[in-house]
Structure to design on (502 residues):
DNA sequence: CGCCGGTTTGAGTCCATTCAAGAGGAGTGG
DNA sequence: CCACTCCTCTTGAATGGACTCAAACCGGCG
């Protein structure tokens, strides 16, 4: 097995989570032509208004999608982790409507768009998996709209802490009950539509209520059920368990 | 031409806007088996947690996608108009993560999911068009996250007024410079993450600045360029003009 | 004519922001 | 090894934008 084939394994894992892929599907995915590029922390993978012709797949590290509004404020619109396809949207729609930036340093596999499109055309199950993946992204976006639009800061923060816990665990990057936040409080503020100062106070509030414990970036969830209640968190929107294959993760 | 074939014309129009479809593609779309259902104002098309097996295509009227949060507040996460496919997400993902509700009365064509999937499989251009359509939906969602997350009420409102103007015009339901808002101020508040009271005050503010004029639900945009500046509106995210075929709408 | 949903307006309150300053911690270079 | 710097986190006090509560107004319609 060539080293490059191994590297796309996380893509196979990701897609295989929602659609049952056979060994041929997996082999075809691993055989995709690609080139691994290392990115430094804060480096841009895609910039708004770019015209992309390739697709990137996150191999290691974390990235964010963000938009900058008129007064210079930033809103993070998505978090990407291992296995996520980072510029499918941009490469198919032509013009990037947002930027993708590394949150940590990490590697990204660059795949020619045509190769991915051809694969989707040849293998219906792979196409379905990518389709579902895109739709889950959309579902998460909708939840985030509701989160920043209608929840107060405590609920809002508790909600994303729950979301991160589950997503990190599913991606094999942490545990549901304890993980390392891959971002600063400032960046967390840009996820939540809050200032870093208020994020700090809100984290303290959650800690004071005994829901979480934290040391620097490490978050320990003391009482998952209660945190989920406070955060108005119902994992349905992550669609972790309504696919053909099910990792059976409860709320 | 049968009457039912005519009714799906708006779907052909919508999809044809982003991908150049040939007559065979159009014919196949119009030949989709479907059944037209009338819905009354406020009636639900899909309810959160439903398991959908059909897809709906908006023929006339407007619908919203929304989520209800813990304290009972509602957030509208999308607006749907003629030609929009309203439960593709839900039918492919299995469980509806949000509700779809009529904003006005209107007709929806109900199409069996399998027929649509088969069509996508048989006709790559149709599949690409649906794919692009889904990605544009995602792009709009991301813009809305930024809108509610990081813009103040005046900017936020001006932004959606611009978005509605363009989308209504493209759908052939109004003009860029003047249109009828299909919703109450309360509903507009649920789009913006604001209260109806504050929406009212903000509308007055925009009017006082001479950017818009309004009578009941009718909005006249006096100064598009300035409204776009105030609303931090850049139409890139609507991807109206970066497809193979271009209606060439500037901002 | 009277009802009812939607709009408008006012006054007071509160959640989150701004501004500002200090503390902690990791990395760098002398 | 320590001083220095930069970044992040923390805390306080004052401000402000949007909310709540409440009442009045308006227009369409039965």
């Amino acid at each position: 097995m060539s080293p490059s084939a191994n590297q796309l394994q996380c893509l196979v894992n990701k897609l295989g989570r929602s659609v049952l892929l056979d060994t041929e599907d997996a082999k075809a995915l691993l055989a995709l032509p690609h080139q691994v590029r290392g990115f430094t922390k804060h480096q841009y993978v895609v910039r708004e208004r770019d015209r992309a012709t390739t697709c990137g797949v996150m191999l290691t590290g974390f990235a964010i999608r963000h938009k900058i509004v008129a007064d210079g404020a930033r809103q993070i619109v998505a978090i990407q982790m291992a296995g996520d396809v980072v510029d499918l949207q941009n490469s198919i729609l032509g013009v990037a409507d947002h930027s993708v930036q590394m949150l940590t340093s990490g590697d990204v596999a660059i795949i020619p768009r045509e190769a991915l499109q051809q694969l989707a055309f040849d293998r219906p199950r792979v196409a379905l998996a990518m389709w579902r993946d895109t739709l889950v992204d959309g579902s998460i976006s909708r939840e985030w709209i509701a989160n920043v639009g209608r929840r107060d800061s405590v609920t809002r923060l508790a909600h994303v802490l729950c979301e991160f816990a589950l997503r990190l665990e599913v991606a094999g990057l942490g545990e549901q009950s304890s993980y390392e936040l891959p971002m600063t409080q400032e960046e967390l503020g840009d996820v939540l539509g809050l200032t870093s100062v208020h994020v700090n106070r809100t984290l303290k509030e959650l800690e004071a209520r005994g829901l979480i414990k934290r040391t620097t970036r490490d978050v320990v969830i003391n009482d998952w059920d209660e945190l989920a209640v406070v955060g108005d968190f119902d994992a349905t929107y992550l669609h972790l368990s309504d696919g053909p294959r099910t990792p059976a993760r409860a709320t």
About this structure: Chain B touches chain A through 48 residues (CB under 8 Å).
